[in-house]
Every structure is written in structure tokens, then in C-alpha cells.
Design brief:
The complex is a heterotrimer of chains A (about 375), B (about 400) and C (about 375).
Chain A: H1 2-19, E1 30-40, E2 55-62, H2 64-67, E3 76-83, H3 86-94, E4 100-102, E5 108-112, H4 113-118, H5 122-130, E6 139-143, H6 148-153, H7 162-171, H8 184-194, E7 198-205, E8 212-213, E9 217-221, E10 224-229, H9 231-241, E11 247-251, E12 255-273, E13 276-294, H10 302-331, H11 338-345, H12 347-352, H13 355-358, E14 364-374
Parallel strand pairs in A: 1-4, 1-5, 5-6, 6-7, 13-14
Antiparallel strand pairs in A: 1-2, 2-3, 7-8, 7-9, 9-10, 11-12, 12-13
Chain B: E1 27-30, H1 41-44, H2 64-74, E2 80-87, E3 93-100, H3 106-117, H4 127-134, E4 146-148, H5 151-160, E5 163-167, E6 173-176, H6 180-183, H7 187-191, H8 195-224, H9 232-241, H10 249-269, H11 272-292, H12 298-311, H13 317-355, E7 357-358, E8 361-362
Antiparallel strand pairs in B: 1-2, 2-3, 3-5, 4-6, 5-6, 7-8
Chain C: H1 20-29, H2 33-45, H3 49-73, H4 79-87, H5 89-121, H6 129-144, H7 147-172, H8 190-200, H9 208-212, H10 223-248, H11 250-255, H12 259-266, H13 278-308, H14 314-330, H15 334-365
Helix pairs in contact in C: 1-7, 1-10, 2-8, 2-10, 3-8, 3-10, 3-15, 4-5, 4-15, 5-13, 5-14, 5-15, 6-13, 6-14, 7-10, 7-13, 8-15, 10-12, 13-14
The chains are: A alpha/beta (about 375), B alpha+beta (about 400), C mainly alpha (about 375).
Chain lengths: ~375, ~400, ~375
């Protein structure tokens, strides 16, 4: 019996010794790419040939030596490579970095304005979806007016790298209604479900200072970037698309106040009346009064509560209506996802109609139900 | 305090006419407390192999007659049978198997008897010589016989339906058969007042067992093969700590595990007053110097120390020894095949555990084969006013 | 006497409690398929896949009942023994060969599947044969101890298999969007029926009911444990479906090769100490694949000895190990594997449900039953 075991052990030993460890990659010998910025190439070399550069790819790589350094110093290396594809760019990058590159800790994907407008987004996205290294929880952001490269070059203030800051910005849970939250995977799902329409996250660089602002949103139509929504417009749109808490301003005769909404719930009810679609939007919310300016009211009294909630409901109703009219009349793109809810409810009717044509004329009724909640610690 | 026991005169040995000598057995007789001599206090005082928090401080002694008397005193019942064997051709030693006739599975008794009678040796130096002769597999890293020097543990084993084997000249008795969960069981849990705390500590002990076997291997697999499974912030910290270290992670791990073993071995051989100080000194010096000079990284020191602490959570000495060696097995597999090798190592250990038997009792009982009714005794601690039921060693119907 | 000086023969003396069937079924059936099976049904039935699973559960529990009746009719006999009684020797032999081919093929398929996933996630440049050889040796080693040892191994792994799955689900729950399940029955009933058939075909490992028959104390009492096992699997696959579709949406699932792993890699729980949940999934994945490989190795080895009448020996074990190892090289590409896999799912109901039920019917009509206390 001992012989059998011994032979098994020997077999294992023989198996292991000549083979060695093929895959052992020590953690210190790897270069972790944490974010990738994609930009269009303005003046490509070798124009017209198969080697024509189509992407300007900017990599943010963790610099191990600086990780333990003083705080406030970025611990990253930024490299930019122009190449015909992302794969080629990674290959070329390896020639510049003395450690094995890996995408296993890629966290942020930034796409520049020009590239997003000019290219079907599924083309660059396919690289990230196919890779076995990339975890699909990467954050996707579009850079307005500037290049993705410019964002990555900004010096981070709180983190060790720009990707840290960008990810941390998406992880803040309150007061996020100024920005649209749409990570890589759900953005792709939106695109696939609607045939190329979606609302993505936006990043901008501050006009005067080298700092980054994440707010607003990017409108996609026909798989390409079609326009931008500023932070106010995004907040409007968020009443429809994303149940994020917001700070709302209200004005009665002689009182100006701000109201922090909590627990926002938006219900989209599509209906078909005589073959024509219509929507009823119900926004339910509660919240608290943050501050007052002008003639103060005793907020514990029922009539002032009534006044506040009525004012807020009216304001929110106007905001939502503004978002819808912007989407329907001005742009004519259904980035608010009304079509998706119609498709879920009435799949057959949706198939029959040409949604893009129908959409601008669809009536949408907005109802807001606001309950008072609290007045904070002071009356 | 232990009450001083008077030495009583040796009575004439009584023999129960009902239990005549069995066909193949040794000499069978009921155990009668009056039969046996008592031992002086000095011999019976506890040694500090383990700390005793609650329960009897009495322990077994080299004198087999006294050991038998201890058991007979605890279980004054005619069903308590001692079966005597003489083993050793040159220097024969008395070996006694004690069991409760109405409790113990006859198959187990027969198996113990068969294996004891099959021993061909010149002499028996210690009970461990009996152990290695009667266990199912001497190749297995896991002990298949429990060793104990506490009479109350032996009593509980007898009530479970196990056989106690007392060897002449050895203060440790053998309890057979044994399961993994019996080895993970401690007296303190059983004597603990509140069952929730007892269960918590028992659960913690299983977690510590898994940690002790797997932690360094897991660390090697994650850092050398699959860093994508590390949280990003942790990755940054490990990267920062390993900035200038010259050796790969697996080398560091093997190196430090070796040092820990060396320190432990040094401590065992040294007189206790000096040993602890020197071990502490040398350990701390090595670690600080290693960290300072960047030869070692901090994360591996945390991992290895945690492993060592966890391994001391395992109550049984032989099992702890097994785990120490298994650590190296899982580390080798993880160094060669990463997470996959780590899992494969666990399959090999798991297969061995489920196919291993101790005197016909599956080693992983009552988890595999599952018998939820018996788990209250070993795997968990049931909330019961009496000793929890244990069917593990009962004859299978 | 085997490698560790233990007498494995004495296992057969002690009959097992029928409750072991629960663990046997759960651990035996779950494999890597738990994650990719969802993908197949979604491809067919889209967002209605959950209906397929519920419909399938009814059929599977009925089949389990009938299979237990069959095993109970011939107590203490292995399927090969009573197969001969029911069908007569020539037909039984022919069917036996078919089963052997089926088992061998399936063993090769899951081994290849395991090897493929292993190459994608763990060991990229290691020659694929070596990890498979390691698994193969372990599987043959365990299979040599017989079904009771395999069952013990399953029981030992049960918690490690199920707990991570539940943990992953609990963490995924926040990211699930039920909108992804609308509209219900948008494409009619046909895709649902097709999906149900597909689901039935994914239950490889179901034969364990027949094989465990002779080892059980009381086969008739095995209905409840068997159903418990089956419903656990069904709940797990529902949970899996809920997670995958709820997080990814049907369109993205169709685009993914391993939607289970993709879905988990989407989840984000800021602040939770372990942010990368793939870690939790690798545990049940590896255990699931390995236990299924063990089970099929046992089926194959005992099938060869039972059908061809070859004495149990090393040769057969080496043969099984060789299949597992060579499977890594056998198929030209993963696309081919997926193709063959879908054929296998189509053929599986015949072997799992139709043939045994036909055997029960025939036994009933020809009034065949087992010798002892039937």
C-alpha cells in the first residue's frame, strides 16, 4: 500500500519538476493599467494604409515605486500611443514599460469627445468585453470638448491616481443627481436594447484650473455621441431616468427655500390609446427643507407644509416637463428610455411603430406627489 | 486542589463469572475500583502540556493499574470491561483495552482486539508504538487514534462507545476510534456553561483550521497568479510594501514558514524560562531586521504569523503536526498552479479525509457521512442538560 | 486493500441512509454548467427563461419519482444487473454500450469545459494537460473507492458549494433590475417549451438515483430526499438566472460566453471588504466541476466493468484518467465544444429520463422485479 502512494507521490514530483511554473507572475513584476483614455487621432501617420492609427490610447499605469511616497504625489505613469486598434496599442505600450502589463485592475474607461462622435461605440467596447482580464465593473465616462488624455494628465488631489478619484466620484451616493450614473455594462445594455440610444456619464475639465468635474451626461444616438446635457439639464432628466436625490429650489410669494429630496421614486406608465402611445409619469418623493431666505415660516404648521409641498411638486413637474421637451422637441432622441418601458409593456405594438419618428409627438403627462418629510432641526 | 489519594491495599482480584475469556481475546475482566493501587500526589500533579480552565486536574500515570483504577472509579459499572494483552517478545508490556460492553460497537472491539493481537514487537516503549501498529494508515498525515492523559476525556470516550487502550509505562492512553471532529473538540467547550459561546469557539476553531492549512497558499496564489482577485486598495498596499523586496512571494513564504518552524523547535528544546525569551527575541529581531532591510515584505509577515496563531488553535497535537505539513503541501501546489493548484490540493486532502477510516468509522463522520443527529456532540455543542447524543460509533443498522 | 490500507469493501456492508440522495444530486448535478446553462436557456427563451426552469422542475421531479420506483423494484441490484433482466441480454448490452459512449463523451466534454475555463481565468500558459491530469488522478482515486466514498466527498463539499453561491446572490441582490424580465411571454409559448427541453438536458448527473439504488437502506423512502435535492438545484438555477438576467439583461447575456462570471464582475458594492466577487464564484465552480468529473468517472468505470464484464482493474482507471486528460486536446476549438455541448443537451433527456422510464414500463408490463423483498 505504501508503494502505491509512493508511486503517486513520485508521479506528481516528476510532473512538477520539469514543468516549472509557467504562469507565475509575481505581483511586483506586473504593471497594472488602471485607466484607459480613448481619443481620435487628429493627424494620423501612414494615412490610408492598414497601419493607419485610428485611436490615440492613453494609459494610466500604477507606478509601484511611488505608491509609498508622500501623499498628494501621483503614483502613476501616463503614456499615450497612437495605433490602429486598442490591442495594438497595448502591444506597443509593452515596449515602453519594463513590467508585464495587465488589465486586471482596469477601473475607468474615458472616451474623448471627437472619438465618441466619430466612431460606433461598440467597436472600442468589444475589446473590453472580450478580454478575460477586464472586470466588467469598469466605469465609463465621456469627456466633453477635451480629450480623455487631458483628464488623465490632471494631478489627482485626494487619491494616488486619477482613476482613484474618478471611481471615488461614482461611489458617492448622495447628491448625485447633477450627474448621470451609467457604468460600462449597463451603458452597453442600453445601447443594445434600443439600437444605439443611451445616456452616459460626462466629465469635464474646469475652465481655468486643472481640476476635474464629473457632472452632466452624454447623449448617444445611433451608437455615436450626439450631444451633451449640462448639469441642470441632467438633473431635469434624472427625474425621469434615475431616482437620485436632488436639491430643489422653491419660491413662494415672499419665501425662497431649498429642499433636499429623499426617496425619489419615478414610475413610467406607458399606454396605448387608439393605436397611439402615451405616457403617464408619476414621481413620488419625500424630503426635508434645507434653508430659507426671505420671510420665514413656521414649518411645523400644516398650511406651511402644504405650501412647501405644493411649490416643490410644481417645480419638479416643470423640471421633468423641461427634460421631456428637450428630449422630444429639441433633440428628438429618446435618451430618457421611454421607448424601453413601452417595449416592455407592449412589445408587439412597439415592434410595429417606427419609434424614432413617433417619439417627438408622444404626449407625456407628469404627476408629482410630494410629501413634506422633515424640516430639519429648526422649525 | 486535588485531593490526596490514600494508597489502598491491593485486594484480591475478583473475577466476574459471567464474562469468561473470549475466544480470541486477551484476558477479560470487569473493572473494580477496589482492585487497584493508588498513586502519590506528585505523580498525579498536572503538567502544563495544555492549560486546564475547568474540570478535573487529574491525569493518567505511567502505572497501568492506577490508570485502570481511575477509570473504574469514574465508571463503577459491571459493563466496564478491561481486556488485557501482553505485547513484546523480549520485554513484554501489559496493554489493556477498556470499553463499556453495552455501549461499544462489537465490530470496533473485534477490530481493536485483532489489531492488538497482530502486533509483533520486541517491546513497547510508549503508547505511540501501539498507535502506529493499530492505526489504519501510517502514511496518512491525520492521526487515527486520539491520545489523551485526562481521565474525564477517557470517560467521555467510553460513554461515546470508544475503546480506551492503556499501555504499561505510558502516561497517555489511546482512544480509538477517532473522527476529525473529536480531535477538534476540547474539554473547555464541553464544560462551558453557555452553549452559544461554546459553539462560537468551536466554529472559530474550524475557521482557524482552514486558515492554518490555507492562508500562505492562498496568499501565494493571489499575489503570484491572480492579482485581479485582490481589492484594488489592498493591491496598492501590497505593491507599496513589496517595492524593493528581492525575492518572489512564494520564496518569501517558504522562507518565513521555515523560520517559524525553527523558532518553534528551538522553544520546545529549551528550558521554559529561557526559551520563551530567546524565542521572542530572535523572532522579533529577525522580523524587524527583515522589514528594515527590505528583505521581507510586511504582508507576508502578517500572513505567516496569522497562520502560526491559527495553527495553535487546533487542540490536538498530532493534528496540529499534520496541519503544519499540509501547509507546505498547499503552498507547493499554489506556487505551481495558483488558485487552481490551491483548489486541487484541497481536493486531494478532501478525498483522503473522506476515504480515511479509523477502525471502520469514516474519519469525517458525522459530516460525511452526514448524520445531523450526532452533530450536537462533536461538530457543534448542543444545548442539552445531559451529555449530547453521539451515534458516530454506534453499530450501523 | 487500497492505497491507504483501508478495506473499502466493507462500505457495501453498511447501507446508506436514503437522505444522502439530496447531497448526491445537488453536488453531482451542479457543475460549471450552473453558470453557462442559464446562457443557453436565455438564448432560446429570452426573459421568460424562469418559466422554463419552473416547468422543467415539474417534469424533473416526476422523472425522479419514476426513477426511484425503478430502483425500488430491484432492491440491491445495480442498473446493469436489472437492465439485463428487463431488456434481455442483447438489447441490454446494446443500450449499455450507448450509455458508455454517452458517459465517456460527457466526461470528455466537461473536462474540456473545465480546462477551457481554467485556461481563460487561472493558468494561461500552462500546458492544459497538466491541470487536467491533476484533476484526473484525483477523480480516479476517489472513484476507485466506490460510490459511498464519492457521496461522502459530496457531503463534505456541500456547504462549500452552496454557501458561496448564496453569498454571491445576497450581494448581487442590490444590482438586480427586475425590468429586465419584462415583457412576459412576448415571443409566444414555443421558445418556452424549447427552453424547458434544453433545461431538462442540463441535468447531467441525474443517473445517480439509479446508481445509488443498491446502496440505500430503503429505496422507497428516497423520494423526499431526491425531491429536496432537485428543488435545491432548481432554486439555485432560478437564483442564478435572476442574478444574471437581472444584472446583465438578456441582450448582454447573449453576448457573453460565461454570463455568470460576467454578471458577478459587474457587481459593485463600495466599501465591502472584498470587492471582487469572482473570488467567491471560483470556489463553487471548481468544486462543482470536479465532483461531476468524479461522478462520471465512476459511472464510466463501473459501466465498463458492469456491461463489458471486464474485471475491475487498473486499466480501466487509467483509461478514464486518460479521457479526462486528453479531453484538453481533443476538441479543435471552444466553438466546437459549445456545438457538441448543445447536441449533448438534446440527447441527454433520452438517457436520463426516456430510457429509464421505458425500462420501468417494460419491467411493469413484463412483470419483472428484483429477487429480494421487492
Amino acid at each position: 500500500m505504501g508503494k502505491k502512494l509512493a508511486s503517486l507521490g513520485l508521479l506528481l514530483l516528476f510532473m512538477l519538476i520539469p514543468t516549472g511554473c509557467w504562469d507565475v507572475k509575481d505581483i511586483s513584476n506586473q504593471a497594472f493599467i488602471t485607466s484607459i483614455g480613448l481619443d481620435a487621432v487628429s493627424d494620423p501617420d501612414l494615412k490610408g494604409s492598414q497601419y493607419e492609427a485610428k485611436y490615440k490610447v492613453t494609459f494610466e499605469i500604477i507606478n509601484q515605486a511611488k505608491l509609498a511616497g508622500p501623499p498628494g504625489e501621483p503614483a502613476t505613469i501616463i503614456e499615450t500611443i497612437e495605433a490602429p486598434s486598442i490591442g495594438k496599442a497595448v502591444e506597443a505600450l509593452q515596449a515602453r514599460i519594463s513590467k508585464q502589463l495587465t488589465l486586471s485592475h482596469l477601473r475607468v474607461l474615458l472616451v474623448g469627445d471627437k472619438l465618441a462622435r466619430g466612431k460606433n461605440f461598440m467597436e472600442p467596447a468589444s475589446f473590453f468585453e472580450k478580454s478575460t482580464e477586464v472586470a466588467l465593473r469598469i466605469q465609463l465616462m465621456f469627456v466633453q470638448d477635451k480629450e480623455a488624455r487631458d483628464v488623465l494628465k490632471i494631478k489627482p488631489r485626494l487619491g494616488k491616481s486619477m482613476s482613484d478619484e474618478l471611481v471615488a466620484l461614482t461611489e458617492i451616493e448622495t447628491n448625485s443627481s447633477l450627474a448621470r450614473e451609467n457604468p460600462f455594462n449597463s451603458f452597453l445594455l442600453d445601447l443594445r436594447n434600443t439600437g444605439g440610444r443611451a445616456l452616459g456619464s460626462r466629465v469635464i475639465v474646469h475652465k481655468d484650473r486643472q481640476i476635474l468635474i464629473r457632472n452632466g451626461s452624454a447623449i448617444f444616438n445611433n451608437w455615436k455621441l450626439a450631444g451633451w446635457l449640462g448639469c441642470v439639464e441632467t438633473q431635469d432628466a434624472n427625474w425621469v431616468t434615475q431616482e437620485a436625490p436632488a436639491v430643489v429650489q422653491g419660491q413662494t410669494e415672499d419665501l425662497f427655500f431649498t429642499y433636499q429630496t429623499e426617496k425619489v421614486k419615478t414610475e413610467i406608465m406607458p399606454e396605448i390609446k387608439q393605436g397611439k402611445p402615451a405616457f403617464r409619469l408619476t414621481i413620488k418623493m419625500t424630503g426635508r427643507v434645507m434653508e430659507e431666505q426671505g420671510k420665514f415660516m413656521d414649518l411645523t404648521r400644516p398650511e406651511s407644509m402644504e405650501k412647501i409641498t405644493q411649490t416643490i411638486s410644481e417645480v419638479v413637474k416643470q423640471n421633468a416637463a423641461r427634460a421631456i421637451s428637450k428630449s422630444q422637441k429639441e433633440l428628438g432622441i429618446d435618451y430618457l428610455g421611454l421607448g424601453q418601458s413601452l417595449q416592455r409593456r407592449y412589445p408587439k405594438e412597439y415592434e410595429k411603430m417606427n419609434w424614432e419618428k413617433v417619439y417627438p409627438g408622444v404626449p407625456v403627462e407628469v404627476n408629482v406627489k410630494c410629501t413634506f418629510g422633515r424640516s430639519g432641526l429648526a422649525r | 486542589m486535588i485531593k490526596f489519594l490514600k494508597t489502598r491495599s491491593l485486594n484480591k482480584r475478583l473475577r466476574d463469572p459471567k464474562t469468561g475469556p473470549d475466544n480470541l481475546s486477551g484476558e477479560q475482566s470487569p473493572c473494580n475500583p477496589e482492585d487497584f493501587p493508588k498513586v502519590f500526589f506528585v505523580d498525579a500533579a498536572p503538567r502544563d502540556s495544555q492549560q486546564v480552565l475547568k474540570g478535573s486536574k487529574k491525569r493518567f500515570h505511567e502505572n497501568p493499574e492506577y490508570n485502570l483504577s481511575l477509570l473504574a472509579e469514574r465508571i463503577p459499572n459491571p459493563q466496564l470491561i478491561c481486556e488485557k494483552f501482553t505485547i513484546g517478545s523480549l520485554a513484554p508490556k501489559k496493554v489493556t483495552a477498556v470499553y463499556l460492553k453495552n455501549r461499544t460497537n462489537p465490530e470496533i472491539i473485534a477490530e481493536v482486539r485483532k489489531r492488538l493481537l497482530a502486533i509483533r514487537a520486541e517491546t513497547v516503549l510508549d503508547s505511540s508504538y501501539i498507535e502506529r501498529n493499530i492505526e489504519n494508515s501510517s502514511w496518512s498525515p491525520f492521526p487515527q487514534v486520539e491520545i489523551s492523559d485526562k481521565p474525564d476525556i477517557a470517560e467521555s470516550a467510553l460513554l461515546q462507545g470508544r475503546v480506551v487502550i492503556i499501555t504499561d509505562g505510558s502516561p497517555q492512553v489511546l482512544l480509538a476510534p477517532v473522527t476529525f471532529f473529536d480531535l477538534m473538540d476540547t474539554r473547555d467547550d464541553t464544560y462551558m456553561r453557555w452553549f452559544v459561546a461554546a459553539n462560537f469557539f468551536r466554529l472559530a476553531r474550524y475557521v482557524m483550521f482552514i486558515f492554518a492549512v490555507s492562508l500562505p497558499a492562498f496568499y501565494i496564489a493571489l499575489t503570484s497568479y491572480n492579482p485581479e482577485l485582490l481589492p484594488t486598495r489592498l493591491l496598492y498596499l501590497i505593491l507599496a510594501a513589496r517595492e524593493n523586496t528581492p525575492f518572489p512571494v512564494y520564496f518569501e513564504a517558504f522562507f518565513l514558514m521555515g523560520i517559524i518552524e525553527a523558532v518553534r523547535m528551538m522553544m520546545v528544546r529549551m528550558p521554559s524560562q529561557v526559551g520563551t525569551t530567546i524565542a521572542l527575541m530572535s523572532g522579533i529581531t529577525l522580523v524587524i531586521a527583515g522589514l528594515w532591510s527590505n528583505i521581507l515584505a510586511a504582508p507576508i509577515i502578517i500572513v505567516v504569523t496569522l497562520t502560526m496563531i491559527s495553527s495553535f488553535g487546533i487542540p490536538n497535537y498530532d493534528l496540529r503536526l499534520a496541519v503544519r505539513i499540509l501547509q507546505f503541501f498547499t503552498m507547493v501546489m499554489a506556487s505551481f498552479f495558483g488558485i487552481f493548484g490551491f483548489a486541487a490540493a484541497f481536493f486531494y486532502i478532501g478525498i483522503h479525509l473522506v476515504t480515511l477510516k479509523s477502525f471502520g468509522i469514516p474519519y469525517m463522520a458525522p459530516v460525511a457521512p452526514t448524520d445531523t443527529g450526532s452533530m450536537g456532540h462533536t461538530v457543534f455543542r448542543e444545548n442539552t442538560p445531559v451529555m449530547a447524543k453521539d451515534n458516530t460509533y454506534k453499530p450501523q443498522k | 486493500m487500497n492505497a491507504f490500507g483501508d478495506n473499502s469493501g466493507d462500505d457495501s456492508k453498511h447501507k446508506l441512509d436514503p437522505r444522502v440522495l439530496t447531497a448526491g444530486l445537488i453536488v453531482g448535478i451542479i457543475e460549471f454548467e450552473l453558470f453557462s446553462l442559464v446562457d443557453g436557456i436565455i438564448r432560446i427563451a429570452k426573459q421568460d427563461a424562469w418559466i422554463c426552469i419552473i416547468l422543467g422542475s415539474l417534469i424533473i421531479s416526476a422523472a425522479a419519482y419514476l426513477l426511484i420506483r425503478l430502483a425500488a423494484r430491484f432492491p440491491g441490484e445495480s442498473p446493469f444487473q436489472y437492465g439485463k433482466k428487463i431488456w434481455g441480454k442483447p438489447i441490454a448490452f446494446l443500450l449499455g454500450i450507448l450509455y458508455l459512449l454517452y458517459w465517456g463523451g460527457f466526461l470528455a466534454l466537461i473536462s474540456q469545459d473545465a480546462s477551457m475555463a481554467n485556461r481563460a481565468f487561472f493558468l494561461k500558459s500552462t500546458p492544459p494537460g497538466i491541470p487536467m491530469l491533476i484533476l484526473g488522478i484525483a477523480a480516479v482515486w476517489l472513484a476507485a473507492y466506490g460510490l459511498t466514498a464519492i457521496i461522502r466527498f459530496f457531503q463534505l463539499n456541500l456547504l462549500f458549494l452552496i454557501l458561496p453561491l448564496i453569498l454571491v446572490f445576497l450581494m448581487a441582490i442590490r444590482n438586480i433590475d427586475l425590468h429586465n424580465f419584462q415583457p412576459v411571454l412576448a415571443n409566444g409559448v414555443m421558445p418556452v417549451i424549447k427552453g424547458t427541453l434544453y433545461y431538462l438536458g442540463a441535468m447531467q448527473g441525474f443517473e445517480i438515483i439509479l446508481f445509488l439504488g443498491p446502496f440505500l437502506k430503503n429505496v422507497r423512502a428516497a423520494v423526499k430526499p431526491a425531491l429536496a435535492g432537485i428543488y435545491t438545484i432548481i432554486v439555485l438555477s432560478l437564483v442564478q438566472l435572476l442574478t444574471v438576467v437581472g444584472i446583465m439583461g438578456t441582450e448582454n447575456v447573449e453576448a457573453a460566453i460565461w454570463p455568470g462570471i460576467s454578471a458577478i464582475s459587474v457587481i459593485q458594492l463600495p466599501g465591502f471588504p472584498v470587492e471582487r466577487f469572482e473570488l467567491f464564484l471560483t470556489v463553487p465552480w471548481i468544486i462543482g466541476v470536479f465532483t461531476t468529473i468524479c461522478l462520471y468517472t465512476y459511472f464510466l468505470v463501473s459501466g465498463i466493468t458492469g456491461i463489458l464484464g471486464i474485471k475491475k482493474g487498473r486499466g480501466i482507471s487509467y483509461f478514464a484518467a486518460a479521457i479526462i486528460t486528453l479531453a484538453a486536446y481533443m476538441f479543435p476549438s471552444y466553438a466546437a465544444v459549445l456545438q457538441i455541448r448543445s447536441y449533448y443537451n438534446a440527447v441527454t433527456p433520452v438517457f436520463l429520463y426516456l430510457l429509464p422510464i421505458a425500462a420501468l414500463l417494460t419491467a411493469f408490463l413484463r412483470k419483472k422485479r428484483g429477487g429480494r423483498n421487492g
